[in-house]
Specification:
Chain lengths: 756, 756
């Protein structure tokens, strides 16, 4: 069959997109393929859950097609294998394993009044939807296009807070538009179901529909206010609520999942119908101001060009040489790392705090949320610290503010509030990493204060710090996933200790350093795994290093088995080595990790992308392939990196292994393609791998350049013969953040043979 | 057994209360018995659902004991027959048939740390609670006292936004205090269950605990922020979440019904422990400001005296002469009419609008919510228009603002938002009544604008205005409880028409007047009842005037049968008379109403207090006994009024027939005891009955007095021989609002015989 990339090529040639594309100057954005990751790699893998829609770097709007209703299967709303589109909603999450958002679904369609009313009031309500085909679909950064029912061409673009729709109907058809406030994650899902608490749609002028919805789901509580402006006057409108037509009203309210829908009609015209949707988390007035400031008197093409230019600016911070396939893989991976977190501040600086009160940061200031921290602290945030240094202070300050208001730093920040997904407060790692790497624009004493509170206040999903002080570990009988929690808390404890030390807080530094080493208390030398203990000191039973369940519903590990957490000690690899009886012991365990096949072939809902017990499809494994560098066998790292890149990534719709998790799985790829990876992000050290690109230039915001030349690399020349920095040969397969920030030239000399 | 009132007397004598009572000068507040209505009259009646706790007139705080957990049976949280108290929460509703609020439960207790932790972490969690007896309980306006476990004396008082607790422990016991954010209406209730979305408790200083809870229940969404100040330093605190003890933290968060609790301990002392709790619907900062402004540096006794004085001022607007029993019944009824609506504005003027955005009204301004309008438009609001004229503009303006923001006037306004309970937008009646009665301080053109929108925008629970225009009625097959909705909408249509007419909007006046007469289209002359029609014009089947169900789940009437809605045409009694073939026909139907016994004895969950088919226990009947005045048989009205007062009211805990419904059932009593009642509130006319008091003086806020002298009245002299106004004999048993507002003397001459 035709290759995926040729679809895109074909899409780009479609007259609709051409008419706009031709005006847009493209250098790097052409290499971004938003469809990558819109399908699982195989039946055993999680879907990567990316969305192809239009958005701006770190913007609040992700205007994207939803190919599923009552969304359960794909958390991004879009799945490559689907053949229908229910509409285009304005907020999405990229790569998460849980669904939410999907605000304000809009669908262009045609039909008679009677047929529409019949459909929307049928007891088994037939949702409006359209067929589409990938041949008639295209996407690029800040732009998405699809032909619906072979009749209505849809184009989407966005600013930070405003979504733009351009609908081209058949000239002879009466243009209709559905606005649906019911569309959401599943209401049937038992675990954290969606509930629409309140909502409203109101015609407020000849061109304008406004409203809001107040909902609870994965995000505890979200308020979304919006104003929708149409390029042509609304000729007629029909309001619906809970499968019932309200013939005589200009506004419709919904409560308790009795959802409001509106169908609006417009004059027939050859001209496309353009729709601007401004949103705010604070008020409709703010949504209006956001639209006025970002979109007033701007054409669709102007907005699209602006979005494209914004992406071009962000992508051009790293320029590369390599094959077209690698360029598509690399820049698409970078692109997916700039989708989140999202700036939720309104134009006037209004923000919503984690206690559901409002504050104003002053006009033009940013406030970020949507942090999948358990994932992104590993490589996404290190990547942002390399390329988004001007944005990172606002991101860090948003984390600090959220921590100060709520009481501790987020575990998983969604729409400004903690949803307690996963474990550990890895914002600690991100903040300490920024501190260690010398980021400016942050009150570090405030930062340390909330880090200390975060790591001393007992709270859910980071378990009970008081326990590790009392028992020396987190007892299984008093907790949940305690082995993973202990390992991850230990890493964050270590982060806190190096920050305290650098700030001269010796006492704190000792306290946290000591606690960061307690992970050793749960290493069972008998079986050679980290393993939970009971409060009486005995080991939790039963134990099976391949099992994901622990004992029944009480898991030992978080989304993993003992193998996958065996090396989760990024902060004390030397210590881990001692537990494993030195380098040889650790190398042996690493070899076993990458070769041992589970005797039970137990399927796990989160682990996938297996190489032995290594599961690249989930985050705990992500640094493991680089660990051979620490046992003086870098060539094994190099071989594995090449194997993972070639087997678990590509430039097609199934090009990502497992959930992309807001960029983390892609950040692993981007770093690895460049030849280095932050095994311990906060340390400021990177382990070297096997770069697949020929040349990389990182354009640093301090004005300097860090250039990487990869000599003689090919599909067969995968081993690193030597590496030099500014002409001087490196003695260890590691570089430091300082070396990068000072600029200079890193040269890899590749060969097809590895040392023995 | 000893009488209820002697309990109170005994309560008042308890040293604890005496120590404070003695300082409080009482004239009228002594006649208020807050316990009236805390139990059902009989097994067939609904509980009246009043609460005995401490509150101020129309204040946001109702600090009252909750004798039930997971509250279902009593919507006020308190039931006379109960023998345990779970604690004292700060917000309650008086007389409603559905439960909500109960924010921030606080309970004083004692016990060892281990026993407390064991209790609060037990899998079948034993809620902390205390026994109590009515002999050791007392209450008066703004004050409540009870002795818990014969050991801890509890006293409560309040300001508008601040609740005050004074706990006197045994000197040798370590004082403990439970603060519980879990306490609420039932989470198990299938219909509108409670969900705690988010909550927090945080120790912020040696004397201070702060937090919030964000919840959804009967009220769609409520945010409650609070600050709690203790008179002694917190010596120790233990935090709990979801039956789990968090040993090492100064804050505890709860999400998704995983509720936070805190137990605080204090030094032993002979001095009572005093606690101030400030609340706000907007922010903790506002809660602090409310407390600072209303309570700082004030003693418990000062606050109690202030609350008592506030009540005294409100009660003294009507002075009466009569038996002590009648004084208790009358002033308690007046008291219950001043509990709602509640001023939700913060001291700084911040308010929460129905779209969940915030606004500021300016310091010192009031903003009212909690409107049980289907009930209270009948007599509560007419009573407020007589005695609360200085407060009514803010109440009316709050209704207008809520209508403007939301799109139509509230049906049932709870915590600032419409919960769509019951039917009809009876705020229309309240606003028009105020307009007709000449209230100042309202932009009447704005008021009319939202009334018109309210009565022309199709919306839930007022059904579809477009239908009555298309069919001439609300078809049963297209609606629910349509007969009741038609009758009630017709009344509101009539209200709109007289306002439009007075404003010179002839066209609107004609439109609404015409529509207000369409109720006649559903009067079935064959059976002589109002009865729903199908959209094809045929009558809905089956029909049985005694049945409450309609056909299966689709009711014809709202909480009633055909008999109980037969006379619900307050605005066109002449027209109803014509339908019933004149005065004789209507008298005959009234006689039947009050004598016909249901052959099926069908029990109904809402109708009770039967006299024949007349059900005084629910509102649709409330004006019916006065209708004999319109058929020239006022003596039948007089006889009935006396019968209802003596049989369905008393001055004991079971002194109210059915739900008090935020004062309406009590407002009927207050008016009837004075001798008049607003059959058609907006008309400005009152029908006369049979007063049971000897003398009444209404002290009007225009400086005038309206005095009522009842000559020769007694338990046997129940008939009105004649009535004179300023010496001039009345020709009809009616007076006007104008006559009252002009001041003057109304004299009833009573006799034991009635004319034949």
């Amino acid at each position: 069959m035709r290759t995926f990339s040729s679809y895109i090529f074909l899409g780009l040639l479609l007259i609709y997109s051409c008419s706009t594309k031709q005006e847009v100057k493209n250098d790097l954005t052409v290499w971004v393929t938003p469809f990558i990751g819109s399908e699982s790699q195989d039946s055993l893998s999680l879907p990567s859950n990316t969305f192809p829609g239009a958005t701006t770097p770190f913007g609040m709007i992700q205007l994207s097609p939803d190919t599923q209703k009552d969304i359960l299967n794909t958390c991004s709303g879009y799945q490559w294998k689907d053949s229908v589109i229910y509409g285009f909603s304005h907020t999405h999450l990229s790569g998460t394993g849980i669904s939410d958002l999907y605000d304000i679904l809009i669908l262009p369609f045609t039909g008679t009044k009677d047929s529409i009313i019949a459909k929307l009031t049928a007891s088994n309500m037939n949702h409006l939807r359209s067929t589409f085909s990938h041949e008639q679909e295209s996407a690029s950064p800040g732009y998405y296009q699809v032909l619906l029912n072979k009749q209505i061409n849809v184009e989407l673009t966005a600013t930070k807070n405003v979504g733009f729709h351009r609908y081209t109907y058949q000239p002879n058809a009466i243009p209709r538009v559905l606005v649906d406030l019911d569309h959401s994650l599943s209401k049937r899902r038992k675990w954290l179901p969606f509930k629409m608490i309140d909502a409203q749609l109101k015609v407020v002028g000849p061109h304008t529909l406004e409203g809001y919805r107040i909902v609870t789901g994965w995000a505890r509580l979200r308020k979304i206010y919006f104003t929708i402006k149409f390029s042509r006057p609304i000729a007629d409108y029909w309001m619906f609520r809970d499968k019932r037509y309200y013939p005589s009203t200009d506004l419709i309210c919904g409560v308790d999942n009795k959802s409001p829908l509106a169908v609006l009609s417009f004059e027939e015209s050859k001209e496309p119908l353009e729709i601007q949707v401004g949103i705010s988390a604070v008020s409709t007035q703010n949504a209006r101001e956001n639209m006025k400031y970002q979109a007033e008197n701007k054409t669709f093409n102007e907005i699209q060009n602006k979005a494209d230019a914004d992406w071009e600016r962000e992508l051009s911070k790293i320029t590369i040489e390599g094959s077209n396939k690698y360029k598509r893989m690399f820049y698409s991976a970078i692109y997916r790392n700039y989708l989140h977190p999202n700036d939720m501040a309104d134009t006037n600086g209004d923000i919503l705090l984690p206690n559901y009160t409002e504050d104003n940061l002053g006009k033009g200031n940013s406030y970020y949320s949507n942090f999948s921290l358990w994932d992104t602290y590993r490589a996404t945030h290190p990547l942002l610290l390399l390329t988004q240094q001007e944005r990172m202070p606002a991101i860090i300050n948003s984390l600090i503010r959220q921590g100060e208001v709520y009481g501790y730093l987020p575990i998983w920040g969604l729409w400004g509030v903690d949803n307690y997904c996963m474990i550990g407060n890895h914002a600690v790692s991100i903040i300490v990493e920024a501190y260690i790497k010398g980021l400016r624009g942050i009150d570090w004493s405030r930062a340390y204060e909330i880090i200390k509170k975060t790591l001393t206040r007992d709270h859910a999903n980071s378990s009970f710090f008081s326990q590790v002080e009392q028992y020396g570990f987190y007892p299984h009988d008093l907790g949940y996933e305690v082995a993973s929690i202990h390992l991850e808390n230990s890493y964050n404890d270590w982060c806190a200790s190096i920050m305290a030390k650098k700030m001269g807080k010796e006492k704190d530094a000792d306290f946290f350093l000591k606690r960061s080493m307690t992970y050793r208390n749960i290493y069972d030398k008998q079986c050679g795994f980290f393993r939970p203990r009971m409060s009486d000191g005995s080991w939790a039973e039963p134990f099976d290093p391949f099992r994901y369940d622990g004992d029944g519903d009480k898991r030992y590990y978080c989304e993993a088995n003992a193998w996958q957490y065996l090396f989760s000690v990024q902060h004390d690899i030397k210590g881990l080595m001692q537990l494993m009886n030195g380098k040889e012991g650790m190398e042996k365990r690493l070899d076993e990790l990458f070769t041992t096949v589970s005797p039970t072939n137990e399927i796990n809902e989160n682990a996938s992308g297996f190489i032995g017990q290594y599961a690249h499809g989930n985050e705990p494994s992500h640094h493991n392939a680089y660990l051979y560098n620490y046992v003086d066998k870098p060539w094994k790292t190099q071989r594995l990196i090449r194997q993972i890149i070639s087997k678990q990534y590509n430039d097609s719709y199934n090009g990502i292994s497992g959930n992309d998790d807001m960029g983390q799985t892609s950040a692993w790829l981007a770093f690895s393609m460049m030849g280095f990876y932050p095994v311990n992000p906060a340390s400021g050290e990177y382990a070297l791998g096997s770069p697949v690109l020929d040349k990389v230039i990182i354009h640093l915001n301090n004005g300097k350049q860090f250039e990487i030349l990869i000599h003689n690399q090919s599909e067969t020349n995968i081993y690193v013969e030597s590496v030099s920095y500014n002409g001087k040969k490196l003695s260890r397969p590691f570089i430091t953040h300082e070396m990068i920030m000072n600029g200079g030239l890193l040269e890899f000399y590749m060969s097809e043979n590895h040392p023995h």
